[in-house]
Amino acid sequence: MAVMSYAQAAVAALAGAMQADARVVALGEDIGRGGIFGQYAGLQQRFGAQRVVDTPISEAAILGAGVGMALAGLRPVVEMRVVDFALCAMDEIVNQAAKNRFMFGGQGRVPLVMRMPNGIWDASAAQHSQSLEAWFAHLPGVVVLCPGTPQDNHGLLRAALDCGDPVIYMEHKTLWGVQGEVDTAQAIPIGQARHVRRGNDLTLVSWSRQVQACEAACEDLAAQGIGVDLLDLRSLWPWDREAVLASCGRTGRLLVVHEAVQAGGFGAEVAATAAEATGCRVRRLGAPRIPVGYAPVLEAQSRVTPAAIAAAARALLG
Hints:
By secondary structure, the protein is of the alpha/beta class. It has two domains: 2-182, Rossmann fold; 194-317, Rossmann fold, CATH 3.40.50.920. It is built from twelve helices and 14 strands. The chain is globular, with a radius of gyration of 19 Å. The N and C termini lie far apart (43 Å). 50% of the residues are buried. The mean pLDDT is 97.
């Protein structure tokens, strides 16, 4: 076990894949310098500019090239810098990468990993702080992953590279410096939730950075004698229905929390599925349907805090 940051864990995973398979390449803006978050640090020096490719500032061109590389037999990792910029490449994602295997009867495969740092980026305002995972979970033909720890960022990136299908890979914009133990030999299957803590009073489901806020809320609730069963989905499509439904069947209550806007968020899918399957009481908690403000006082309105999570849990129990 080594202690690594979230960014270093991703570098280690990608370096291992590139060392093992010459078909793995990376392309994006400024990745030769290590990327804006250090998530490619040292890779161009190690593997050369032919495999770690700096590109022009054109997200459509970057992703279009990645789709073509994948169809030609490579296994590209495409860097979008932040998910907000991926909106300039939606045709390539939605109409090309996601649909190729279906439209051509499996003759074409797109083993493409699209890295799209997601979520609120401190003091970065409305065009750089969006949480858009529900858009991609709604899209047939792609896998959607949201790692929330250094260990998961290593294991899930390796799983994404081995997947064989297009993967939307959403690292949180503010987790890059978070430190944690990483077992580089540990495989993490796509579609398996992480059981963060166990309890019998309430099931709490979240993912990405918001799990940290949920953990803080759980500590507050534990001090009041409330035992929370906390699950980090980490994979949104496919998601671990079995783990969630088993927990909800035991506790009879489900609170789903995410940083994304609550209206139309992926939490609604989890809540509806659990209610239909188990009859449990459900509640969702997400951001209000407003743009993320630049000023700290406005940005704070978009954040789902541990205090808000604990209050929602107590209301559901009541």
